[in-house]
Design goal:
- The chain is mostly beta strands and 219 residues long.
- Helix content is 13%, strand content 35%.
- The protein has 3 helices and 10 strands.
- Strands 1, 2, 3, 4, 5, 6, 7, 8, 9 and 10 form a 10-stranded mixed β-sheet that branches.
Amino acid sequence: MELKILFEDKYLLAVDKPSGINSDGVYGVQQLVRNYLNTVPYGNKLIAGMPHRLDKPVSGVLLFAKKRQTLKELNKQFADRTVQKTYRAIVEGILQLKQNKLNHFLRIDKENKKAIIKNHYTNNYYPVELSYRVLTECDNTSLIEVELHTGKFHQIRAQLSYIGHPVIGDIKYGAKINYINDSSIALHACKLAFMHPVNNMAIEITSQNKNFNQLHSIV
């Protein structure tokens, strides 16, 4: 895979992750970023620290830190929920509420590598929250924009499935409509907005995916 760089400076690197590849691991995007950084003549040893991840079948903006202190500062922003994470998703069905906030509780089923959602608190479940708004509708599918307020395992996929609108192609969470191929689902991380951890400037990194602009062409 060839890296598509969306943003780069002395401290940060953001790439456009394709679907079907892990964020980390030996054959993941992180290793490709490490290989790239080894060719950059910055003098100081650089790292490819990851303050967040995207699921294997998800595409979009993936951010890396080049220095340990930068990673530490980014981790704090993600933990404090000051990073704005925006996604586009194509889901099954027509949503009755065109704009809504979803609050649930999530547990990770490690054996099946799946998130379990409930609408009330239970031991070992964590509160999760997202907001969505419908952008367009076509037949029995909807293109929505999602603001992720927490960042738990498979959160968007699990919450949307729980309300009866799984992401297209997401068989694990009950989708019945196929997406482009078996290694991807119709979920794209289109924007990441945060404060630069060194110069304190507002940074907004975006990724455009043509499949999320024309609903008719893929369903």
